[in-house]
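[recover] target loaded
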């Protein structure tokens, strides 16, 4: 399904469908083993972000704790807009590794209670340390300060769209929710793809989106991808990827993670970059 989006248009509401996770999943917790769970039994925890039936990595831990399979203590930090693990099985300082089907291990600073679950994904919870986690929490805290300073609007200081040596740079871009993934997220939740849609609303670009059920070895994708920006159009194994977050964690240092942009809720990132890659013939 391809959606061509002239400036100012709204998103058609005929799709997506059948995106709920329904399978038996597993999560590995260091020192404790592998735990299985039924995706249909897990509540979202972040009901302000997720629709019923959808949930985050963190919600899986809460579910296992409710079943008595692990011992988890945690609390919500409003200035950081995230849940913090105090202790897991008696130990502090934990973080995750996760990726969807067809993916691989990558560093991520993305909030654990924002990371959406999909059937077939890999998840491991491993020991971390106080300084590493505090560097992530500092980012979250700064995002909160930025958003409050913008009257609770999401305004991204720098948005860059680039192909080869050609770049479009926009400053202080106000992002509005378009509810493209109303199947997964609550109304009003802003995702990374809303940046593209907002630039279109503001007559700064034109674009098109395409829905993919799967891509190559990624057997469960079920997401919209940015198919074209102005006259730059994806084809073959060439197209756009993105990253977003704080400059300090740019690229593979934590921002560039393989969560489709329509599936990644954002708070108030320092930058967002869409850039062109060629993985094979175009």
């Amino acid at each position: 399904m391809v959606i061509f989006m002239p400036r100012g248009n709204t998103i058609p509401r005929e799709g997506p469908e059948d995106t709920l996770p329904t399978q038996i999943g597993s999560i590995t917790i260091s020192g404790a083993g592998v735990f299985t769970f039924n995706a249909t039994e897990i509540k979202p925890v972040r009901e302000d972000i997720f629709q019923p039936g959808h949930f985050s990595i963190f919600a899986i831990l809460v579910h296992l704790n409710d079943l008595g399979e692990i011992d988890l203590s945690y609390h919500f930090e409003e200035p950081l807009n995230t849940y913090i693990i105090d202790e897991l099985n008696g130990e502090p300082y934990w973080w995750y590794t996760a990726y969807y089907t067809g993916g691989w291990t990558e560093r991520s600073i993305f909030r654990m209670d924002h990371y959406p679950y999909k059937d077939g994904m890999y998840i491991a919870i491993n020991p971390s340390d106080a300084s590493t986690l505090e560097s992530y929490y500092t980012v979250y805290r700064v995002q909160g300060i930025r958003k409050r300073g913008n009257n609770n609007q999401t305004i991204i200081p720098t948005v860059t769209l680039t192909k080869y040596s050609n770049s479009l740079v926009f400053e202080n871009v106000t992002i509005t929710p378009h509810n493209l993934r109303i199947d997964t997220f609550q109304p009003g939740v802003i995702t990374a793809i809303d940046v593209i849609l907002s630039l279109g609303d503001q007559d700064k670009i034109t674009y098109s989106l395409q829905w993919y059920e799967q891509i190559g070895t990624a057997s469960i994708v079920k997401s919209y991808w940015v198919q074209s920006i102005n006259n730059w159009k994806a084809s073959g194994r060439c197209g756009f990827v993105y990253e977003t977050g704080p400059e300090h964690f740019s690229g593979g240092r934590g921002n560039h993670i393989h969560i489709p942009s329509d599936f990644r809720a954002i708070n108030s990132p320092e930058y967002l970059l869409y850039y062109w890659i060629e993985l094979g013939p175009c």
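[recover] notes: The first helix runs from residue 57 to 66.
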